[in-house]
Amino acid sequence: MAINIAILGFGTVGSGVAETLDINKDVIAKRVGEEIIVKHILDVREFPESRFADLVTLDADEVFTDKDIKIAVETIGGARIAYEYTKRALSSGISVVTSNKELVSTKGPELIEIAKNNNCCYLFEAAVGGGIPIIRPLYKCLAANKITKIAGIVNGTTNYILSQMKDEGLDFVTALKQAQENGFAEANPSADIDGIDAQRKLSILSTIANDGDYIAPEQISAEGISAITTDDMAFAASIGCDIKLIALYEAGEKPVAYVAPALVDKSNLLYNVNGVFNAIMVDGNSLGQAMFYGQGAGTLPTASAVCGDILEAAVSEPYENRDWTKESVEITPYDEIAADIVIRADVPAKVIGAAEAYECEVLSDEAILVKGIRHKDIAALVSEAGAKSWMHYLK
Amino acid sequence: MAINIAILGFGTVGSGVAETLDINKDVIAKRVGEEIIVKHILDVREFPESRFADLVTLDADEVFTDKDIKIAVETIGGARIAYEYTKRALSSGISVVTSNKELVSTKGPELIEIAKNNNCCYLFEAAVGGGIPIIRPLYKCLAANKITKIAGIVNGTTNYILSQMKDEGLDFVTALKQAQENGFAEANPSADIDGIDAQRKLSILSTIANDGDYIAPEQISAEGISAITTDDMAFAASIGCDIKLIALYEAGEKPVAYVAPALVDKSNLLYNVNGVFNAIMVDGNSLGQAMFYGQGAGTLPTASAVCGDILEAAVSEPYENRDWTKESVEITPYDEIAADIVIRADVPAKVIGAAEAYECEVLSDEAILVKGIRHKDIAALVSEAGAKSWMHYLK
Questions:
Q1: Which domain holds residue A390?
Q2: Distance from CA of A246 to the nearest CA of B (A)
Q3: Is A330 part of a structural domain of the chain?
Q4: Which of B20, B145, B289 to mutate to test the interface with A (most CBs of A within 10 A)?
Q5: Which residues of chain B are within 8 Å of residue A299 when distances are taken between CB atoms?
Q6: Of A261, A376, B220, B237, which sees the most CB atoms within 10 A?
Q7: A62 and A186 in a common domain
């Protein structure tokens, strides 16, 4: 006996999946009890040079009408053809495993329900944090916790760019260009540098932490890193901080979720997460704090997570698809969220005077930490204090 | 409907389990679909002051003959009465969830087999890393990987002592005393400071990484931290390192597994793991490197892991108990293991001369890194070079 699977989309991740299943087929067969066999690879192109060329088909019907297929790996990306194929597979009782954060974050509620109704699974460990186990630990290992907070570096491209700006003293444009040359950023880098990718991943993490009460990407305020200057980086270093793009979730009646660059204090473990690495800190009411760290992208790490899900789908009874609500739930509007920020000013005394309603802390002769100020009140304070700029702060 | 469980041993962890199940009962019931109810608490003492006093019984028969009990939580510790009760529960088809690393590491092969034969589970997420999800991620999320290496700080007591020695300049005896006063070390601290606790945890991690080919605690060489001096700490700092008690596993035909203090370079993420925290780095051939970090001990964090397993046992079909071999498999004898070490000497040139067969690197005017030297060859080299001391090194 063997378990036959199809790979939909033979790009970076899809080919990594075929590779991983092949190089580790001995241990996988031992663990599953059966061989996992890639029977079809569906793409719009043929790959005559690939050693998997024989498996490639351009005909979707051939894949979806094949009764042998138990699991489909959706590594197409985007939310159009991937959405159609995922619905088609799940509706036929074929479990789908994916790394597609856009699709999971935008269509998760519907796709999870289709899977449930058809007694199959929709699994997406690889959609957040690449190779880092985070989705299953949240669902399974921390199941007895109320998740109170998540703070993560979930986008490797921006973290790489920020690390290069720090270590090499590059400005943003040069660092981005270098990231593109090294294959760490797309030709059109917007989804990464504008925080959209992080926003999608945070939507997924937040919804899980929020016990399936769906928080959609478009509800989550996202600020990217393109406005970060070399001067900002130097300022951060002067107060023992580093600038990271942080995805933040906090539990509550109306949960908090936003993506923004933040000054991360060197006492925080996220301070040491550099280059393309990702890390996600999770606070649970019983757990305390835990951190999950690893390669947030890349062919093989992402394939590792996809393949973990394939094995899960292969050996398990149809996964208890933990429902996501169809409609998104209300979250705290960004303006109303109270944040800790650092205000940079030539005359700190003026900031302290203007911020007397808040708990403040002097970090340096030009940096004042102001705690718990609502976003909507920041502009007035900055203006009143004659300050230069402000940024989120993570202790 | 409800799922009834029994807690065996109402000490620190057992009471934390009762507490966690109670404070989070709403989310747990939602996630499991049924309430989890603690029906019995078995101990040799009564706890009249506890709010769970009514549940406490001294009569084991009352617990094990109760057909309502689906899951037993073994938080007794040790390998005597805990062993008897675990066998009795599993033989009756009652799943057992535990934090007992001594029992899992010494009797795991037998207990896993009994569980399998009786169609129930033996789960032990809490036995390693306290609240940190590590066992299930290794089994599930990284299932498609060959695990090539594990390097971890798995004992919070020794890490706390070493952190205090570093930060406060205390000597070992004073730091140990302080740890005992603060409840971070036992009155009899041997299991922690001599590396025995770490040895047991490494036995569990190594056996899982080694695909169930059992590596017993007594096969694993363990050196503790009681010989570490303030002078060693200062030396470590002088070469940008910190001393940590490291549990190391490396895959191979004859795997490598040992516990020893090591100089950890500041570029390594484990360098920043301080106090009672634990962290486990895992290398997989597809994953690359990942790290799992969190509170390695403590009532609620450990209870978090135990309760995660309770929920797993409650909702899942009997867990595919991944067999451990009955007999332990051969590992590389400690003497034959090639290690990276730092030799401390007044005349580094003499070390380099004596170590010409090895790749060396000068770290300071009294520290030479020697790579890949077998343990059995170290004493001769140290003597020949007229060196003061040596220690393992982790980049």
A1: 335-394
A2: 18
A3: no
A4: B145
A5: none
A6: B220
A7: no
